[in-house]
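Exercise 3.2. Students should predict the tertiary structure of the chain below and write it as structure tokens, then compare their answer with the key that follows.

Predict this chain's 3D structure.
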Amino acid sequence: MAITREEVLHVARLARLELSDAEVERFREQLSAILDAVSKVSELDLHGVPPTSHPLDVANVWAEDEPRPCLPLDDVFANAPDRDGELFRTPPA
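Answer key:
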């Protein structure tokens, strides 16, 4: 499936990207190749294969969400360029 130049420009506009003509052409070729590769899945007989969100079995990849003590403020502000008591000090916008 070939992506058109206009489709690349549309996606770039949505992502607020400014692309040169060379970049538009390169992305058009790359995105077309990706869609061609993905479309090959439709050629497979997937009857009876359950949908998955991950190619590998993943079980309990998250740590338990248990309360823990907070970091000491000196550790929190250790790399801050400036602080005001218990607040990060930032330059005015």
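Discussion points: The CA atoms of residues 71 and 77 lie 10 Å apart. The mean pLDDT is 90.
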